[in-house]
Each structure stands twice: as structure tokens, then as C-alpha cells.
Amino acid sequence: MSQPVETFTPQQFHRQSREALANPQIRANFRKAMDGLMDKRRDAFAEWQLEELRQLGANIRLRALAHLPDLLEQLEARCEANGIRVHWAEDGEQACRIVTDICQRHGARSVIKGKSMVSEEMHLNAHLEKAGIEALESDLGEYLVQLNEQTPSHIIMPAIHLNTDEISDIMHDNTGTERTRDVDAMTAAARAQLRERFMAADVGVSGVNFAVAETGTLCLVENEGNGRMTTTVPPVHIAVTGIEKVVEHLADVPPLYALLTRSATGQHVTTYFNMISSPRREGEHDGPREVHLVLVDNGRSNIYQDDELLDTLRCIRCGACMNHCPVYTRVGGHSYGTTYPGPIGSILMPHLMGLDATRDLPTASSLCGACGEVCPVKIPIPDLLVRLRREAVGEGRGNVPGAGSKRTSKEVAAWKSWQWLATHPSAWRGATGIIGKLRGLAPAHIGPWTEYRTAPKPAAVPLHRLIKQYRKEGRS
């Protein structure tokens, strides 16, 4: 029987990641899923000029961010002209109040939700439940983790940490569905369970992939049809999105769409691409009577003020950096304890939650550069990780979790000694020569680093000396 997982926090990243590494089922689930996603992405871009498309995507996002304040005002004006009511939220708490007030104004008792990472960031479901309003996730992955009292483990595939047997147990335990390993049968059962809820819901809540300032259009990308149902069947539709999701022109959407679908799941297109520009008009037979757009800041304005960190706001939430990250693919999303896990979460969450609360996340990377190489909009994730690491160890604080002042001071002193040696060639040559002669005394274990690696030993003869010797002997 599947059991709900504990509450994860970013402060416990090291403990949580060690537990994930010790769980063979989690590692097997992620390894199988990630290998498939990497292969699909590679094949999806096989006949494309990928670097040219990535540069185009980066330019579109940079142009939108350069004019963000003006574009947001234009988006508001166009949406209002189209009949969409626009609300501004300074933080997640205010955004939750806005959504709750709209629901209460309509006497809503039930809300059906499409996939929305911003609503996860806001903790919207918990806020609605406190107000006596039931919120049900309609995305299949989100539905499963909600049934199991979990949070998403991936921004695109929330239930990627679960295998077929675990999903079958969750559905059986919570809905009475017969246990089966037939994926189609489980999907059909979930669809039947959700269909009634779509029809009965008072309000539908969705996210937004792209908000077009030029036309006041809200674009939603999805595969299951739940987004289309959420935004058309209930009489009221509320879309929530971060302020960075705005793009300038409708013509900017197709390149970003091509990058998003191929980078996320290796698809050329998703099953559904929804474009919402207004509530139901006179003479139309379906659609909501009201559409609301909630623009959420929640720390994004602070990021926008920083010329380097501004690049973080380019993100189109494809999850490719997670799929290719050797850390994420082994420990999974829950280990991070944050709404956005993986490389993008490690550079975004410190500015949404504060660096003190997320100090370990920038170190959750091998700095191999894979995340930067696959990012469809060319966010320099490794560079930003290095910057955050530098900030995390500022003022001699170090980055050793749970370390006392004595241990932290030793760590800082060790790095300062290395820095001095590395900038004084004569001292460096002398020190490395001594270390080479004492290589037999090198420790086999160097803290947590060697729990999953073999500790390296200094070379008996330095490389530059070997090269000189080879040249002297006439060897190439």
C-alpha cells in the first residue's frame, strides 16, 4: 500500500537527498523516466537548427523582459478591453486572497484546477480549503499526488517519481479502483472520476504558459484536455500566472511553443493548445461567463532589478534542465523541498524564499553545465549557481549544513589557503611536490563527497614534469 511522504524542506536537502539515494525504487523510477525524456528531446530536435531556435527563443524572452513594465500595462489594458478582469498580487498570500474572494463572491464550494505551478507556489489549495472550498487537481499527475497527499516532484510530470504499481495502489486506496497494471485502464478510471467534477465545479483555475500583451490572449499548453475543460465548463475561470510570463507579440508564441514541447516531453506539438482572449460572448454556446487573470509578483520584481539574476525570469518551465541534471535524476524533486526543484529551482527559489532558507540548493549541482546546454532559452544556469554559492559563503559563513562556527571557520580558512597557493606559482609547485611525495597518506574518505565517489590521490609526478620528460626523450 502506498503511503504519503513526509513534508520536505530545503533546509534538510542533504538528509533528504541521502534518503533518496538509499531508496532503490526512487532511483529506478527516475533513471528510467529521465533516460526516455533525454532521448525524446534529442530526437525531436534532430532535423532542426537547434542553436538558432534557442537563440531566437532567448531573444524573444529578453526583449519581453526588457520592456516588462510596459508590456504588463499593455496586457492589462488589452485583457480588460476583451472582458477579462485583471488583478495584481504582490505576493502569494495576496494572490490566494484574490482567488478566494472571487470564489466566495460566486458562492463557490468546489474548484477544479488545471496544472499550475504558480498555484503550487502560492499554496492555493490549502488556502481554499481553509475557506471551506474544495480544490481538486484535474491534471492526471497532479491528481495522483493530491490523492497521495504529496507535492509534485517535477514541474512538467508531477508524478514521475511513482511507478505503475504505486499508482495502482494510490487509486485503489483512495477511489476504490481495481488494482491493475494496465495504464490505459487506470487513465480511463481517472477520467471517469474527474468528468463529474468538471461538470459540478463552480470555478475553474488554470495557469498560463504565455500571456500575449499585443492581443490580451492567455495561452495554455497541455496534453490531457483537462485544461480545456477547466477553462470552459465552469461558469467562472481564474487564470494565475507569474508576471514574467508575458510576451510582446502573438508571433512570439510559435517559436517558444516549439521549444517548450520538444524540450519538455520530446513532442513536436502537444495535444491541446488553448488561446483564451475573452469570456463567453453573446451568441456563443459555451465558455465561462467571467474570466479573471491574477498577475503574481511574489519576489519577481526583486529578481528583475538584478542585471544577472534577471536571466532567471526567461524560464518557460519546460523542465529540460531537470531531465538532464545528474543530481536531480538521482535524488528526485522532493529532496529539494521546494516548489521548483532541480537546477532552475536552485537559482529561482533562493530569491522567492530567501537565501538563508535555501542555502544548500545552489550546491546541489555538479556544475557539469548540462542544464545550461539544454535550456531552450539559454539561461546561464551554471553561472548563476556559482554566483549564489559565492553569496551563500559570504561573510565567512560557509556552506556546511548544520556546522558550528569552528568547522565553518576551518572550511573558509582552507579555501583561502588554496586561493593563495593558486595565485603564487612558486609556492604552488612546492606544495604540490610535497603532496605528491606524501600521496600514500591521502585519506580514503573526505566527508560526504566520498560517500558515492572514490577519493582521488595526488599524482606521484606532476603533469607538467611528465610533459617535459616526454619532450626531452623525444616522445609525443
A few lines on this structure:
It comes from Halomonas cupida. The chain is an alpha/beta fold and 476 residues long. It has 21 helices and 10 strands.
Give the CA-CA distance, first to last residue. Answer: 63 Å
Number of helices in the DSSP assignment: 21
* Structural class by SSE content: alpha/beta
Mean pLDDT: 90
Radius of gyration: 25 Å
Number of strands: 10
Under CATH, the topology of the largest domain can be stated as: Rossmann fold
**So, the CATH homologous superfamily of the largest domain?**
NagB/RpiA/CoA transferase-like
CATH architecture label name of the largest domain = 3-Layer(aba) Sandwich
Which descriptor suits the 3D outline?
A: globular
The biggest sheet, with number of strands, parallel, antiparallel or mixed sense and barrel status, is:
6 strands, parallel
- Helix coverage percent of residues? 40-55%
The strand order across the widest sheet is 1-10-7-4-2-3
Low-confidence stretches: 1-5, 395-407
Q: What is the highest CATH level, the class of the largest domain?
A: Alpha Beta
Strand fraction equals 5-15%
Keywords: 4Fe-4S, Electron transport, Iron, Iron-sulfur, Metal-binding, Repeat, Transport
Protein name: Iron-sulfur cluster-binding protein
GO molecular function: 4 iron, 4 sulfur cluster binding; metal ion binding
Pfam family, one: Fer4_8
